[in-house]
Amino acid sequence: MRYILLAFLLFFMGCEKIEVYKTSKNGKPVEFKRGEVQCVECTMPLTTKIHSAQAILPNGRVYFFDDPGCMAKWYLKHKDPKIRLWIYTNDTKRYIDAGKAWYKLGDKTPMNYGFGAYEKRIKGSVGFDKFIAMMARGENMTNPAIRKKYLH
Question: Which of 55, 118, 110, 59 is nearest to 88 (CA)?
Fold first, then answer.
């Protein structure tokens, strides 16, 4: 019985969400340390900026994402033109406006959605609206049919 109680407590303690960890005073992305914040969509702790994204609400609250796919899933539920989305790019290694980034399917990402973000357009990449639409339709690397197409 003691082990069941311990497992129960550990499970629920691990499910805690840190939805808003930081505040942005100027609408720009904020810095974070390894393990300091977690993805609001999947609750995975962020260990690096690579593949990360941030949503900044009009009141300055910052939501973090560990994978561009998590950002897309969250955005589909919270569409608001006042929310500023930032994505960390694989090519220039900095945060840019997510609406101006290019997204290429087939990259290895933390939650395996497979969309890498790029500042400069590369072959096979799509713009933000197409990326969001593809995520809405389940056209990402978590879909076995899509994964098979890109891995072969």
Answer: 118
